[in-house]
Design a protein that fits this description.
The structure is a homodimer.
Chain A (H helix, E strand, L loop, with lengths): L13 H31 L6 H13 L2 E2 H8 L3 H13 L3 E5 L7 E5 L1 H10 L2 H9 L3 H27 L2
Antiparallel strand pairs in A: 1-3, 2-3
Helix pairs in contact in A: 1-6
Chain A binds a DNA duplex through α1, α2, α3 and α4.
Chain lengths: ~160, ~160
DNA sequence: GGCCATTTAGTTGTGCACAACTTAATTGTG
DNA sequence: CACAATTAAGTTGTGCACAACTAAATGGCC
């Protein structure tokens, strides 16, 4: 097959180039995402949190109590993901959920004492993650920017795609 | 930006810097990964494949029939993920699984006629994905390299972590 | 040759992501 | 006011990732 190493005798078609490059980028992003997840899994084990649960706690620590809707916007997650996740956080005693009095459709997510206190123990997490990446702050920052641009482009592409069909 | 806006009255501690930066990188990678997944979901819908199933088919198209073990090494997936996935691909008539005669522990995964034929219809996928990223080939290539380095560092960190405890 | 460690798939259970749907509350419009 | 459209959570079902385990085959070693 005309892959792996292109012998000089055979010119690689553009289609082949696309296929190879694409495979690499999708493999790479997938692998990086899962590797990141693995590091978080190890580091967060002591806290009894999963990676997505940690993201939710980060938002609550940073921005304070808020309705499920806002959490979902911040994390780009819908209620189908957040509802059971929050139920587990509540079972762990880290958050409390209560219907809003003003708008009974909305559910307010509040940190419990334990949930707020966990922030102290989570303080070392970022440093350990950053150390695991082996990157300095500038590298991390640059990568973050690139990923955000990529996400923006991909979201726009999805919007265009779904709009036209 | 110096991270959102720290009111001038409060000096940000180093711990805060780490926390904010980390939050950004973990948010960004998570979001990018899910956005990528979303684009693949749309593009692969016509083929009746999920993104992980597509990755498996890519490997089979590229490297030919092979045992589950090899597929797992290539994709960094274990049998707990691959077994049910391959069962679904078999149910869809794209692959066939058979115990190896030489080594009865091993299961050989083979493309069916339909599975091999699907490659033609998948030919346009990479171009559509690349278009959605809005990146040129050099950008994609650079990002891929960076992600691969990151994955390597993270894997090494996990290995070190699990070895010392 | 017999036995034990290793290897390969598969199974089970937990948790996340997402689509499609339901329920209930609110909002907008005639 | 009445009623349709919208909004917020939740539920259900499918599929993936991974840990922990089981089952069966293989290989090494005495």
């Amino acid at each position: 097959m005309a892959h792996k190493s292109y012998p000089g005798t055979m010119t690689s078609t553009p289609a082949d180039d696309w296929l190879r490059l694409d495979r690499q980028i999708c493999f790479s992003l997938n692998a990086a995402s899962r590797a990141f997840n693995g590091v978080y899994r190890v580091v967060l084990k002591d806290l009894g949190l999963t990676y997505p649960q940690y993201l939710v706690m980060l938002v609550l620590w940073e921005d304070g109590d808020q309705p499920v809707k806002k959490l979902g916007e911040r994390l780009r997650l819908d209620s189908g993901t957040l509802s059971p996740l929050l139920k587990r956080l509540e079972a762990a005693g880290l958050v409390h959920r209560e219907r809003s009095a003003r708008d009974e459709r909305s559910v307010e997510v509040r940190l419990t004492g334990d949930g707020a206190a966990l922030r102290e123990r989570a303080a070392e997490v970022p440093r350990r993650i950053a150390a695991a990446t082996g990157c300095d702050l500038d590298e991390i920052s640059a990568l973050r920017d690139r990923l955000d641009r990529l996400t923006g482009a991909l979201d726009a592409a999805i919007a265009a795609e779904t709009a036209t069909r």
